[in-house]
Amino acid sequence: MRVVVQRVREAAVRIGGEIRGEIGQGLLVLLGIEGADSAEDVAWLVGKIARMRIFADGDGKFNLACADVGGSILVVSQFTLHASTKKGNRPSFAQAARPEHAEPLYELFLETLAAELGRPVACGEFGADMQVSLINDGPVTIWMDSKQRE
Hints:
By secondary structure, the protein is α/β, with parallel strands linked by helices. The chain is 21% helix and 37% strand. It has a single domain, classed as D-tyrosyl-tRNA(Tyr) deacylase (D-tyrosyl-trna(Tyr) Deacylase, Chain: A). The radius of gyration is 15 Å and the shape is globular.
């Protein structure tokens, strides 16, 4: 399971021109699920995201988590995070999970993150054609892979 986490001033996801999910200050999480992912990957990433200290304290140091600053989280599924560009010029998405495996893990990710935060999480729609807009704050962008835990 891979995520790109962006600290944002605001972010929104639209489907067919209508806003589906929208947040102010917080985190935009782009979530990619691969075939080998499980509930264990969900738990590890949710814990990391919920406790990630990438917001500045009074001294300007990264010491605060999203919840500490009253931030929100917007999660958007993005299978293209598992693109392989090894050969040729057209990416292969063979590593990305099939929808029947990925969608339940996406839903579990949303539920687990909401439970960890103690409040709802904004989201896109699994498998939909979405337009994502954001104002990256910093910019701060973090990439994590549950199969490459550091």
